Amino acid sequence: MQPDTVSLSQLRCFIAVIDAQSFVSAARQLALTTSGVSKTISRLEAGYGLRLLHRSTHSISPTDAGEQLIGPARAVLNGAADIDAILTHASMSAATGSVRIGAPPAFIRRRLVPLLPAFIERHPDIVLDLRASDVFVDLAEVGLDLAIRSGPLHGLPGHVRLPWFEFDWVACGSPSYLGRRGMPVTPSDLTRHDLIGFRNTRTGLIEPWRLRAESFPRSPNWRFITDDAESALLTTMEGAGIMWGPRWLAADALASGMAIEVLPDWRGNRMPMSILRRGQNLLPNRVRAVMDFLFSQAAALAKPNGPLEQHSPATL
């Protein structure tokens, strides 16, 4: 019984053996095992009930059927290579398709989702596939095109970090909580307050409060600890204590008056937000279009945060 189709892998193995005159050399060229190449050709032969190769201890040569197959097989493989080149070029050239972006869950909800209408209007043929995760991983391994991460990014070769913008971390509490407990005037006053801690999922440690003061309490009075930034904000807005978090997270609550910044004069250094991409030289146009859009929206993303240090996307 003849098979319905002949696979490209079968033809590729056959031609490699013909050219190399050796199963070992053909396997090395194809990055396969010798037995794998031999079995692939044997399956092709068995499917049609004929021999394509004369095998001996010292030589390999095509049978009559094998001789007839060589020309058409080369033509098919060359055609497949042309198709691959055409499709690759089209993929790189067209700003269409899906772009997978990994970002912290709270950043997606608070800052990326509101931008979707503008992005869809500008790029109706690109689908944004947003993956909510704080995990710092190899983008290729998890199938991501881009990742949005804050802070220093080290220890991941094969990737390019593109500075996007810088943001403040702020301490804030709800009007009801501050009305009950009073407004802290200096960092040392925090010893008399209930504090909400955020646990960094990458390190497993509670995020330090980077205030510009040596008097910050060494053993904070944690009232609540969570590894979910959105939960920390909601707990703060409910009046459970004072939180420390990125201003882009608290911006809407601060603007609406549902949260009030405390100790603004003791803010620490700003933290960078970056776009991480794979280290490939040739980026698909759909990925580049998304990156260009994100850079064009940097000011809008951080507008509630006050002055923003923006970076040009010229080095994309």
TrEMBL record:
Domain of life from the UniProt record: Bacteria
Gene Ontology MF annotations: DNA-binding transcription factor activity; sequence-specific DNA binding
One Pfam family named in its UniProt record: LysR_substrate
Keyword GTP-binding: no
Record GO biological process: DNA-templated transcription
CDD domains according to UniProt: PBP2_CrgA_like
Domain called HTH lysR-type: residue spans: 6-63
Keywords associated with the record: DNA-binding, Plasmid, Transcription, Transcription regulation
Family: Belongs to the LysR transcriptional regulatory family.
Name this polypeptide is given: LysR family transcriptional regulator
Protein species of origin: Lichenicola cladoniae
